[in-house]
Amino acid sequence: MADLPPPVQGPTAKEKKYDRQLRLWGATGQIALENSHILLINSGPGVVGLETLKNLVLPGAGNFTIQDSALVDEADLGVNFFLEEEHLGGFRAEHTCNLLKELNPDVQGHFISEPVESWLAQPDALEPYTLIIVTAPIRPGLLTKLAAHADQALVPLFYIHSVGFYSHFSIHLPPAFPIVDTHPSPETTTDLRLLKPWPELLAYAEEKTEGLESMAADDHGHIPYVAILLHYLEVWKKDNNGQVPQNYKDKTAFRDLVKAATRTDTPEGGEENFEEAVSAVLKSLNPPEPSSTVKEIFKSPECVIIRENSPPFWVIAHAIGLFYTKYGVLPVPGAVPDMKARSADYIQLQNVYKSKARKDLAEVLESVRFLERNANLSTHIEEKDVEAFCKNAAHIKLVRGRPFHIVPAEGDLKFGTNAKSLAQKLTFPDALVPIYIAFLAWDKYTATHTLDDLARASKTPGSSDADVDSDTGKVTSIALKLVDSLVKEASYTIDEEEYDTVRAQIAELARELVRAGGGELHNIAALTGGMVSQEVIKVITEQYVPVDNTCVFDGVRSKSSVFKV
Amino acid sequence: MATGRDKHASRSLGSTLHARIKRARVLMVGAGGIGCELLKNLVLTGFGEIHIVDLDTIDLSNLNRQFLFRKEHIKKSKALVAKESAGKFNPNVKIEAYHDNIKDPSFNVAWFSKFDIVFNALDNLEARRHVNKMCLAADVPLIESGTTGFNGQVQVIQKGKTQCYDCTPKDAPKSFPVCTIRSTPSQPIHCIVWAKSYLFTEIFGTSEDDAPELDHSEDSENRKEIENLRNESQALKRIRESMGSEEFPKLVFDKVFKEDIERLRSMEDMWRTRKAPNALHYEDLLKEVTGVEKNIAQKDQAAWTVTENFAVFLHSLRRLSNRMEETKANADTGNSSPILTFDKDDVDTLDFVAASANLRSIIFGIEGRSKFDIKQMAGNIIPAIATTNAMTASICVLQSFKVMRAVMAKDELGAKLKDESSEKSSKAEVKEEQIEAKTDEAFSQKISKAKMVFLAPNGTERRLTTEGLSPPNPCCPVCSVAQSTIVVDANRATLNDLVEDLLRLQLGYGEEFSVNSEAGLLYDPEEDANLNKTFAELGLNNDASITIIDDADEGARVNLVLHISEQHLGTEAKPIDLTQKPEIPLKPKAAPTETNGDSRPIVTNGLTNGVTNGATNGLKRTAKEAGLKDELVRKRGKVVAESDDDDFVIVDDANDGVICIDDD
């Protein structure tokens, strides 16, 4: 449930309006959304950018700005629901901004209709924005400039393509993008510590299972399953040199032991609590070992050395790392799943877990305070943040943001660190890497072709009917060259026959992209806008795990794929 | 080549498909979250005629995602406002809106069959099932969709070719044993259900027996307690009589928070091992209530103290009783007393349920909940956001392209074959059947390209997962039935005419079968009282349907659904007749329903929140996909070498630059 501070006054109309989303990301997420200022640098048909913004204006992103120097033309009316006949010839940025603002009076909208080249040339042009979305086509030089800003100001940058039936987006996040509230699925969050019980938990189990054999039927049928499992674990250990069940074979044997202890002389012919115990064996009897991703976070340089400007995430992670080093486990999260039990026993059990969780939290908090003093930290870390971290410790996540590929107008693209994995994925039918390559080729074409001699507006392949054939040839050859250089850079050997298939596929995709003539299909733009805005919300609220770092969509087969570039 | 407005769509879709889409007539049921997005996409894709049906009006909590609506539209019809707003996006599209229930009889089978495609953008199971049934009856493709939070899915349904909505069982709403709710609650939800389905309905509504959340089944253990609980309910009903009086709140309070608790507590057996409940005392709480802040009921995210709950309880009870009194005073007829129903958005009812639930929790030593949480638990609120709806609606339209291609392929082939056959003009009778078989085959082949799509919000490798469409479940009670339309002169035709003449004589039914209407049983071998009644007397009017269930021991046939078309037939004509003789296949041998074998949880917003998030595997699907393929192959009677489903070829059509995206 959303962790919401008690409001000073009653629920406002605003809270009522946002009710359905507060149940997903809570007040903290909503506040983050309201404090954001999103910049959209729009070009091409401009649909996907506006569809993305629509989905951010509706839930109440605080501010947005649209940079777009295009004028509204007839084709815009067909794909862009914001625009109507009366807007023909006007600035697209201005009209779309005004119409977007209509969707939500809580949101402030701004627009810039100055051409992107001159506007970006101004110093501090990007200063106000907390997140930047760019739609293709854009000149590589400008995109490089935006990427540099993203790196230096730690501002997330999104780059989107939507052409015909295909789309793509890449996200450039700050090098360390940690998430505490990852919203793991409820099945994975139960952590009962049955294999590493603490004395109070053991005492509880002992108390509830005392005289188990001779217990009255009703009592026997109401022992909480946690106590049942702990009791039989002790029995098991006696017969197994003090070892808990180690592997699948042990666990099934242990499960049979518990099953055999179920009384069958009841009116139902069994006992619900024992059934719960039996079905919990395989999933609950795991050593409470943190995942490798969590352990990596403890080892990362930001975590190891705490400085005065360390963000709270790293300070708390460091403190929890200390806790882990000391005890070999993470703090107990404290939640207990529902189970067959008498109310009083259940509440008592809840209290055993809660008081342990509080004790663990107190210890982590003490380390946090010590670190604060020691490193002379500039910010004071709030207890509730430490608490949230302790509860979610097993599920925290660190995304290492990195720049995406920008195809240079001149010279060759370097695929970099992920060249190998990209090359490997070329032949995976579901990885859709060929679509990504085709988009890179599309970018290369637009980077090297202009509509007129003024060299201002980029020309997208296939945009004039007469050139479709020659453009298809050009984009195809760029794409094939790109895939060759990827395979070469990765020094990856690929089966010749398979490689021919990949090349044929890429050629077809290149042709398909050209055929769309740089046009957007409203429906694909809407879908891509939905996906991008969902990721934007994740990034802004720092909740859920965002795409790392590239997503491709194939509208012909309704397939999507996520991979790192 | 299309220019202007159509430029982009025409290029990507190809001008033939786009031209067909511009002539298409589609129905969209529901103009809420998915509906708004869907309507925008349909309008901008250029679908020629769009009909919208929605019964609902606009609420403030819709505005965070239903972008066709503004604050000034609150309380207005969703369908009408959606038409108004979306109509501006494309003046070439014709939109019809109906502020009406899709279950209204005027939306009959004939009406449904006017559409090329039906889109479901609904929020409840009942309406989904109804539309599913109507589309099967009208043989119209249906694109079904739903979302919950970040999850969503889209399913294409085509009679006889794919699973229908009811081919896989849907989860029933959770219910609790009545004794847990009434005597031994142990969780906050038990107290919330008690407050909503027992206390609220006993005081302001009809009767607790109607509440679906309560499971009243008796067994040897709880029989006595259930009897006690009935007496308790009766006593509460008597207190209801004194509503409006000064002492009413105290009477209610003392009854449910003191006397009933004391009675429970006196049953020592029950508390031998449970923590016994502690009654609350009205006078004690009344003394402290003045200290409670005035606006406490608005603090919906804090857990209230016992006194705060008490204050909210008193206050909301008073507001609700006043409302009842006013309604009573204004009612024209004094016979039926007015009732209130719980509505999560009706703040008085929510306050009452929240405060009562929390007071009960305190009595039983259960943790209280904030009003915000109780609203979600009591109101079955499904989180909903713009992003998920945007994705889901776009997938619906993508799937509709595949359905339109199937429709086109069928029409084109049909026209071509008809031309050929009329040229030869011999044995036209035989040709007709062949044409139908061939066009059906063409249709099947194309529709098998459509997919079932799931959003996978947490998938690390993909954001959408797809699976092929499964063939119909042969045991499905909804789609694996035979359907036909009968012409009936309702004032002349009797049930006996149906049973003897039509069913036994014409269709060869034996002795053992039953005739059922939506209201219930009309005829079976033991029930012959209705035989001499006419259709008019039985209330079987135009567009009603009746179901014939064959109970023969050997060779029983599947259920037969007959749709009634009322007509005045001349006195010489039979008063009842078939329009077309239906083929009624035999019932499959009670095969184990494999429906649930690998069914993914379906989001049905309004019913289950149990959507799992895992990135789903593509592996399990192949068997089923293969199943559908096998069937297609079988139907064609020859084995066609099919390319793998994942390969596709882009074929450039030389005539008009159309690209057909296809995999064969």
UniProtKB/TrEMBL annotation, chain A:
Domain THIF-type NAD/FAD binding fold: 18-118
Any GO MF annotation of the entry: NEDD8 activating enzyme activity
Pathway participation: Protein modification; protein neddylation
UniProt record, GO biological process: protein neddylation
UniProt GO cellular component terms: cytoplasm
Residue stretches in coiled coil: none
PANTHER family xrefs: NEDD8-ACTIVATING ENZYME E1 REGULATORY SUBUNIT (PTHR10953:SF29), UBIQUITIN-ACTIVATING ENZYME E1 (PTHR10953)
Protein family: Belongs to the ubiquitin-activating E1 family. ULA1 subfamily.
This protein's name: NEDD8-activating enzyme E1 regulatory subunit
Organism: Karstenula rhodostoma CBS 690.94
TrEMBL record, chain B:
Domain Ubiquitin/SUMO-activating enzyme ubiquitin-like residues, every copy: 487-567
GO molecular function: ATP binding; metal ion binding; SUMO activating enzyme activity; transferase activity
Biased composition (Polar residues): 605-616
UniProt superkingdom: Eukaryota
Residues reported in the UniProt entry to bind Zn(2+): 164, 167, 476, 479
Subcellular location: Nucleus
Gene3D superfamilies for this protein: Ubiquitin activating enzymes (Uba3). Chain: B, domain 2, Ubiquitin-activating enzyme E1, inactive adenylation domain, subdomain 1, Ubiquitin-like 2 activating enzyme e1b. Chain: B, domain 3
CDD domains, per database record: Uba2_SUMO
Chain ranges of the THIF-type NAD/FAD binding fold domain: 13-407
Entry GO CC: cytoplasm; SUMO activating enzyme complex
Pfam families in UniProt: ThiF, UAE_UbL
The protein's assembly and partners: Heterodimer.
Protein name: Ubiquitin-activating enzyme E1-like
Species this chain originates from: Karstenula rhodostoma CBS 690.94
